[in-house]
Automatic annotation (TrEMBL), chain A:
It comes from Collibacillus ludicampi. Pfam families: CO_deh_flav_C (PF03450), FAD_binding_5 (PF00941). This is Carbon monoxide dehydrogenase. The keyword Flavoprotein applies. Keywords: FAD, Flavoprotein, Oxidoreductase. PANTHER family: XANTHINE DEHYDROGENASE SUBUNIT C-RELATED. SUPFAM superfamilies: CO dehydrogenase flavoprotein C-terminal domain-like (SSF55447), FAD-binding/transporter-associated domain-like (SSF56176). InterPro entries: CO_DH_flav_C, CO_DH_flav_C_dom_sf, Diverse_Substr_Oxidored, FAD-bd_PCMH, FAD-bd_PCMH-like_sf, FAD-bd_PCMH_sub1, FAD-bd_PCMH_sub2, Mopterin_DH_FAD-bd. GO terms for molecular function: FAD binding; oxidoreductase activity.
From TrEMBL, chain B:
PROSITE patterns: 2FE2S_FER_2. SUPFAM superfamilies: 2Fe-2S ferredoxin-like, CO dehydrogenase ISP C-domain like. It comes from the Bacteria. It comes from Collibacillus ludicampi. Pfam families: Fer2 (PF00111), Fer2_2 (PF01799). One of its GO terms (molecular function) is 2 iron, 2 sulfur cluster binding. Pathway: Alkaloid degradation; nicotine degradation. Residues 16-93 form the 2Fe-2S ferredoxin-type domain. Keywords: 2Fe-2S, Iron, Iron-sulfur, Metal-binding, Oxidoreductase. This is Carbon monoxide dehydrogenase.
Amino acid sequence: MYPAPISDYFAPSTLEECLDLLYHYGSQAKIIAGGQSLLPLLKLRMVDTPIIIDINRIIELQEFGEKFLEPGKRILRIGALTRHKTLASHPLVLSKYPIISDAAKYIGDVQIRNRGTIGGSLVHADPAADLPVPILVLDSTLRVISKDGERDFSAEDFFLGLMMTVVEENEILAYVDIPSPQKGTGAAYSKHSVVFGDFSVISVGARVTLLEDICQSSRIYVGGVNPRPQRAVNTEEFLQGKTITSEILQKAADVMAEEIEVESDMRASNTYRKILLKHYGFNVLSKAIQRAKEDQF
Amino acid sequence: MNQLKELQKSSADGTKTIQVRVNGQIVEREVHIRMLLVDFLREELGLTGTHVGCSVEGRCGACTILLNGENVKSCLTLAVQADGANILTVEGLGTPDNLHPIQEGFWEKHGLQCGFCTPGMMMSAYNLLKVNPHPSSDEIREAIVGNLCRCTGYEHIIEAVQYAAERLSSMSKEEREKLLTY
Ligand SMILES: Cc1cc2nc3c(=O)[nH]c(=O)nc-3n(C[C@H](O)[C@H](O)[C@H](O)COP(=O)(O)OP(=O)(O)OC[C@H]3O[C@@H](n4cnc5c(N)ncnc54)[C@H](O)[C@@H]3O)c2cc1C
Ligand code: FES
Ligand code: FES
């Protein structure tokens, strides 16, 4: 099946060139990264664009590694072109930020992970996508750039709704900065899908900071059920200050299933989703706690 | 090997000239920007071993090829994006007289029935064996999650890949590299 005709194609090799192109053609152009979401949309003619800007050659967008932004403030910088494959298997991710590989390793299949990028996934903002949840859970900052300047967003402000983000037509998402883990912090993610490696029916991501088994703070998001991942505020409050036991985690999962608004769709009824939420809520919190004890973000 | 040049020339008339290395040979063609890589391989180059199964959503894996050394779905890439790339399709694996160990495995272990999924399966197997010389059956299953087969029930495919793994590991390092480093 063919996309509609496309009149021009550019493959800039620097960010500056790319921003110039976006400045000139923004409203008529579409960026292509991995193409794993854009190509199906082009074929279905749900997207019809005169111009394609291929960002795959831009080195600046391929940055990946830890950095000091200022003394004492270490971050993991993930360039927008970082492939799911790297996020799933990079030693740095596996040892210090395993929640990211929890999410990346079951995106689609090997072929999709070889091509798909974090930038494409976040800007596409499919409600059932895997990467938005850990990015939210880890309080990341996203850098969006245009010829007019740079804008930084917290992950919470970045996602607006169903396939909608703050990124404008003349802008590009350049990278994601993730703060380095505090002591006693652990995080985990898991999803339920109908077929192995498919989009999620529900997903849960959680981060917990412990001091001698007492929950100091937590951040919990649920994906796959709403136009954008929903924060489980009541569950976070419930956990605050509590000594963590298996019973408390069970109760927390009940609170989570209670507070998250879930809808029925063709993949699952809301009753089934609530049951899944309790199960996955408990498992993800347990895993996050276990990692907190091992200092794994 | 000949030097590949990226032409980068775009003419605003909906076409672009690209140069790729496919199965060792450099080819240059003017293509429509909207042309998918799978259609380029099949229609422009006549390499019809790469199949089209699902055509829209990119789920069946019949179109799997190696692009710069990694298996990807050629229905989810534009041909123009492959400008300057190194491509391996099933036609580049072996010849009828001299089968690639992966092809031999599918032959010996009856890893196919209708054969529609087979070229894509073999390219995913290639990608796996490149990095994992002794995959477990679970690792093989995970490697072919993106390749659907409606006939075999997968068991024979897994045996085929294991057969290929054994054949390859019985070879010298040089031979093995020649067969797996595209
Ligand atoms: C069969 C199949 C199964 C899948 N399963 C899953 C799954 O289980 N979980 C999951 O999360 N995803 C899944 N996906 C989607 C996949 O993860 C995609 O890789 C991802 O959503 C999009 O990334 P991409 O790099 O391919 O982006 P593209 O398709 O290239 O682009 C997507 C959108 O983002 C824009 N864009 C891309 N990069 C930038 C940037 N840096 N700045 C601004 N705009 C940009 C594009 O213009 C486009 O609108 C699946 C896809 C397929 C085909
Ligand atoms: S044709 Fe089905 S994945 Fe490409
Ligand atoms: S052999 Fe028929 S689809 Fe696999």
